[in-house]
Structure formats: C-alpha cells, structure tokens
Amino acid sequence: MIVRILGEDQRRISDDSVDELNRLDLELEDACSSGEHDAFAAALTSLLDRIREIGTPLAKGQVVPSDLVLPSADASLAEVSALLTEEGLIPG
Hints:
- Helices cover 46% and strands 13% of the residues.
- By secondary structure, the protein is α+β, with helices and mostly antiparallel strands.
- It has one domain.
- Helix 1 (18-34) packs antiparallel against helix 2.
- It is globular, with a radius of gyration of 13 Å.
C-alpha cells in the first residue's frame, strides 16, 4: 500500500501493518468523536509517527498513485473529523 501524509513524501507500507494502523486509526476516530483536543493531537501524532517508522519512502522523484492520503501533522480536529468515513481514515 502506498501512503502519503500531506506535505510529505509517499511511503510503501506492508499489508501486514494494516491491522496495527487500523487500531491507531480507531483511536484517532474515538479522539475526534470525543472532541478532546489533547487526545486528538496525541492520536494523530501516534498514527503519523507509526506510518513514518514502518513505511519505506519511495525514491526521490518517484510519484505513483497513493492508496491512502492522510492529513498533515498540523491538521485541525475539525479537518480530520471531516475526512473520517465509516471506516475511519484507513479502510480495511
């Protein structure tokens, strides 16, 4: 799966990581629902940091269609809430 965090490079994520990312996505969704800004910021940071840790950056100049586009680290609670679907940010 190819993932882009807005404002950053694309990363290749193994399909084996989807369950872990879905768990972090659910935590983010719960934090958005609560409206608690500190919990939201922590959950978004955890998700994006984990993507950065496990994802392999694509080569500079290589651009392929992204399977998933995530908000930037400075996205607001309202912006992320507007992006959430029934499956959160990460389908599957």
